[in-house]
Amino acid sequence: MHGIPTRSSLVSVIPVRGQGKDARTLLLHRANAHLHGLWTYAAGHLEPGETAWQAAMRELAEETGLRPTALYSADQCETYYDVREECIAVVPAFVAFVASTAEVHLDAEHDDHAWLSFPDAIARLPFGGQRTLYAHVQREFLLRPPAPALRMPI
User: Fold this and answer.
1) CA-to-CA distance for 61 and 64, rounded, in angstroms?
2) Percentages (nearest 5) of helix, strand, coil residues in the chain
3) Count of CB atoms within 10 A of residue 93's CB?
4) Are strands 110-116 and 10-17 parallel, antiparallel or unpaired?
5) N or C: which end of the chain has fewer CB within 10 A?
6) pTM of the shown model
7) Which of 25, 129, 36, 140 is nearest to 79 (CA)?
8) What average pLDDT does the segment 24-32 reach?
9) In the chain, where do the E strands start and end?
10) How confident is the model at residue 33 (pLDDT cuts 50, 70, 90)?
């Protein structure tokens, strides 16, 4: 039987500082070849033996130097067609709350960062799936308290 394979080997992380309408989220400006020049968020591949939430914590630390005070499953997965791998990618998303004083230290994958309101971040994101995910996070994690069952055991 022919078909498009499904792959789930990536995670994405949406950093948030502050609460409610005053909350800000971190976008990263891509410097390397993949997605060069686009604004996006921390993301990356799982390593052997790693859970998805552990990969989210590691990727956030590697790409931004940030350590969350609380980490939640966003209760959403991004799905998209990956032309490079010829598959449907299913990417679990996480919400990482960080201290308002936390400093960003970018890795070589990124050359700039910005803490933005959710409407401004949504306007800057290049892909519809990303904009949908951010609107979900704003609605379910900022405008109301997140469900305790979504909290990861960091």
Assistant:
1) 5
2) 25, 35, 40
3) 25
4) unpaired
5) N
6) 0.93
7) 129
8) 93
9) 6-7, 10-17, 24-30, 39-40, 42-45, 70-82, 87-97, 110-116
10) low
